[in-house]
Design a protein that fits this description.
By secondary structure, the chain is an alpha+beta fold. Helix content is about 40%, strand content about 20%. The protein has 25 helices and 28 strands. The longest helix has about 35 residues.
Length: about 850
């Protein structure tokens, strides 16, 4: 704080204490406002951290910025209250804010060219080429496996495109509004974002680079495929099926196709998936692959180690793991989109790849197998080579062209495999001894069977309320805990995956993209039920067993013998997601945001230098702000100029200083006021309690500070002088009272407003005219009563400090009225009380009478 401001504070303190008092109160009121806002922001960030609210990372950054502003404003008001004491506080805030911002910020985008590179260079720069391109480049470099030639439009091209059209801020502004709990808003914002991308202009240089690469890739003007290769795609976070691939693209239209791939970053399912993994939009830029369009006879997917193999396979093979091969006629997009079932085969993982189960042709599948035995074994051999290259099980997309040549077009970790926290043998239903685990339906044998699918897709058990959605547009408003019954496993289901307990579909493939995402999230999925909408009533509570493909009526639970392992699998999948990417980053950020290290205001460690988080700074400023108000006026009454004397039946000399709307307008111009003039909610409540038992005050002399009167000599001051009297500083929702009762005093500082989060009562009681034992016995009575009324109480000899709140306005009013009654009953108790048993009996009697009168704890 500037020296001039500090000098002004000292000047007010010496020459205009009343003005300083009002300034301090106004600063305190603002401090509490910023305190409330800071705690709201911390609570919202905690909701995001604990998964109660799913938002875009841009919202996390915005909340951190707002928290920084709110905390700085709060500290500014504390320094306004006492600049000399808190001059160094801003430095600690700067340090904590720096660490918080570092934790939530994402790297600045790299816009530098080149914007197009050959696939051969992609393995060196996955941050530019994206996961899919980098992995294909590694396959070409390290193996002899067939990979199509390709060119990469880099992530820098995406950043350049966004910067050229000045789209970063408009995109972030819309992303900050996203809540996955509001599906209609998600769809609307997604539409806005995609329109922004598709309507934006390609920078001339970028357009030229893309067209040059496209014509070089296809000099005969043959069609191309433009495939997504976003940064973070096809790694530990798979993004399976979340982005678009545009097929059969004429080279002249490659730029438009690239924009369509970029726009797919903002379709609802891609937004939902990215948000659920805590990743920022700017750190998942879109790169893309330009590839020749292969003349596919058939295409499909290999799982080099199937994460959920059918239980019907030999138990011994399940222990070792099996390779799954899935194929469809034509291009593989109809398979991974979930629209078409596949011909599937399973092979052993041993070097000679023994076929364990061959494809079973039949409607709607081709009458003859799409793959020969040699094709399947060749695919298994390719899969083993890719698994050895990358060191983990692989999900491989392949194409078999019309000449019989197989091309590898993608290789990524198997979603739902060991990388994602799931042990495949156990997910497949194999126990520790290597034997097949008991059939999952044995766990549900008390439940009626509703339906049985021909193809379990993703293992696990889920129970919830069945909701029918025959078409994609009907899924948006599904509530939490839904078992979705639908026609097929389209990738759009990803947008609501956090609300689902299971999925039952009429058609769909184990090899489709949504199946991969479901395994990544530990979500049970069953397909192949002929008419699920008839078999499973809408609104019924059902249990889905993804391992056996069965659906049961009612809910599975421990009391019915359900196997706990599938639920553990889902928790393991969620924990694995939290260990990766943005979830881990948010956990680090919360150390600087919400972790509370300052817990005891009375400790010597409760100091600015021990603040480690924004929450610490908020706690410190709040406690010190209350302490500043708790010592609002000096013992000599400085600052009470303009106070009005209170006229009351209670024999107490009190002066009241109204600092803001604490009195009704009718009190204006009065030299003396009465309790009917109180507009202050907390003052009225406390005075109601003090005056409730008027008979206790009968024949009592006016209370004053007799100890101070003895000290400054008899006769110099009147007993009703402000220096000896009690006082109250009040506003509409605030009251600060120093009450002198003979040789003891009580201090009450309280806020009682409609905003529950800021309301509190701070109470201190000390002294008395009796011997030390009597004073401590009275403290014992007060402690017992206050503790039973929800106060946090600390005592030291004849000193008691108590704190209540935060709490609702009505509760604070009730506690203040109780406190007034307690002060009235115990003012001379120190000279009457006999022993500890009598003290406890008096406290219990007071509480019993309070309960009878309706003033007890709610």
């Amino acid at each position: 704080m500037a020296i001039g401001e500090l000098f002004r504070h000292w000047t007010y303190q010496v020459f205009a204490p009343g003005t300083l008092l009002r300034r301090k109160y106004n600063a305190f009121r603002e401090l509490l406002r910023h305190d409330s806002r800071s705690l709201e922001l911390i609570a919202e960030l905690e909701d995001i951290h604990y998964g109660n609210e799913k938002v875009d990372w841009s919202r996390v950054v915005e909340l951190a910025d707002q928290l920084d502003d709110a905390v700085r404003a709060m500290l500014g008001q504390l320094m306004e209250m006492n600049p000399a004491r808190y001059m160094g506080l801003a430095d600690y805030c700067n340090k904590i804010a720096f660490y918080m911002r570092m934790a939530v910020s994402v790297p600045e985008p790299d816009l530098a060219p080149p914007y197009v590179i050959p696939l051969a260079e992609a393995h060196q720069r996955p941050d530019r080429a994206g996961g899919k391109a980098a992995r294909l480049a590694a396959v070409r470099r390290e193996t002899m496996l067939p990979v199509p030639d390709a060119t990469v439009v880099t992530a820098a091209a995406y950043h350049y495109f966004i910067e050229h059209n000045e789209l970063r801020e408009p995109i972030d502004a819309r992303l900050r509004r996203l809540r996955l709990s509001r599906p209609d808003e998600l769809a609307a914002i997604s539409e806005e974002l995609r329109a922004m991308i598709l309507e934006a202009d390609l920078p001339p240089r970028l357009e030229e680079d893309i067209l040059t690469a496209a014509y070089a890739m296809s000099p005969q003007r043959a069609p191309l495929a433009v495939r997504s290769s976003a940064v973070a795609e096809d790694g530990p976070v798979s993004f399976a099926g979340q982005y678009a691939s545009v097929l059969r693209v004429e080279p002249a239209h490659a730029g438009t196709a690239w924009k369509r791939v970029v726009a797919s970053k903002y379709q609802p399912r891609a937004l939902s998936y990215r948000i659920l993994h805590g990743l920022a939009d700017a750190e998942t830029p879109m790169a893309a692959l330009l590839m020749p369009m292969l003349d596919a006879a058939c295409a499909g997917v290999i799982y080099t180690r199937d994460p959920d193999p059918p239980r019907r396979l030999p138990a011994g093979e399940l222990v070792e793991g099996v390779t799954a091969v899935h194929a469809v006629a034509g291009t593989g997009d109809v398979l991974v989109s979930g629209d078409t079932p596949a011909q599937s085969a399973w092979l052993s993982r041993r070097p000679r790849s023994r076929i364990l189960e061959r494809p079973a042709p039949g409607a709607p599948l081709p009458a003859t197998p799409l793959l020969t035995t040699e094709d399947m074994k060749r695919l298994a051999r390719y899969g083993r080579e890719l698994e050895n290259l990358f060191g983990e099980p692989q999900d491989v997309e392949w194409v078999l062209d019309q000449t019989g040549r197989i091309f590898i077009v993608q290789s990524r970790p198997v979603p739902g495999g060991t990388e994602h926290g799931v042990v495949p043998e156990r997910a497949a239903g194999v126990d520790d001894a290597g034997d097949a685990a008991p059939a999952a339906d044995a766990a549900h044998d008390t439940l009626p069977l509703l339906a049985e699918g021909s193809e379990p897709v993703s293992a696990g058990v889920g129970s919830g309320t069945a909701r029918h959605a025959a078409i994609c547009c009907e899924i948006g408003d599904m509530p939490q805990g839904t078992v979705l019954v639908t026609t097929t496993l389209g990738p759009s289901l990803t947008r609501i995956i956090d609300r689902l307990e299971a999925v039952v579909a009429q058609t769909g493939s184990r090899a489709c993209h949504f199946a991969s995402v479901a395994r990544e999230f530990g979500l049970p999925v069953v397909t192949g039920i002929a008419d699920p909408f008839t078999a499973i009533p809408d609104g019924a509570v059902v249990t889905v067993d993804g391992a056996t493909g069965r659906v049961y009526a009612d809910r599975a639970g421990r009391e019915k013998g359900a196997d706990a392992r599938p639920r553990a699998r889902r928790k393991a999948a969620a924990a694995a997601r939290e260990r990766r990417g943005g979830m881990r980053r948010l956990a680090r950020a919360m150390q600087h945001i919400a972790k509370l290290n300052l817990t005891d205001p009375a400790s010597s460690d409760f100091a600015p230098e021990n603040c480690r988080s924004m929450h610490d700074l908020v706690r410190f400023a709040h406690e010190r702000g209350v302490a500043e108000m708790f010592s609002l006026v000096g013992r000599g009454g400085r600052g009470l100029g303009g106070a009005k004397k209170l006229r009351t039946d209670v024999p107490m000399i009190m002066y009241v200083l109204n600092i803001e709307d604490g009195l009704f307008p009718t009190a204006a111009g009065k030299e003396e006021i009465g309790p009917d003039d109180f507009r202050s909610t907390p003052m009225w409540a406390l005075w109601f309690g003090l005056s409730a038992a008027r008979e206790l005050w009968a024949n009592m002399p006016p209370a004053a500070d007799w100890n101070e009167l003895d000290r400054i000599s008899a006769g110099i001051f009147r007993r009703d002088a402000p220096q000896l009297a009690s006082y109250a500083v009040i506003s509409a929702h605030y009251a600060h009272l120093m009450m002198r009762f003979g040789y003891h005093f009580a201090l009450v500082d309280t806020l009682c407003a409609p905003e529950d989060r800021t309301n509190y009562i701070q109470f201190r009681f000390k002294g008395g005219g009796a011997a030390a034992e009597g004073r401590e016995l009275r403290i014992r009575v007060l402690e017992r009563v206050l503790a039973r009324q929800g106060f946090a109480v600390k005592t030291r000899g004849d000193l008691l400090d108590a704190r209540h709140g935060p709490d609702a306005e009505a509760v604070i009013q009730k506690r203040l009225a109780m406190l007034g009654m307690l002060l009235a009953e115990t003012r001379l108790l120190d000279v009457r009380i006999g022993d500890a048993d009598e003290a406890e009996a008096m406290a219990d009697d007071f509480l019993a009478r309070l309960d009878t009168a309706g003033g007890g704890a709610p």
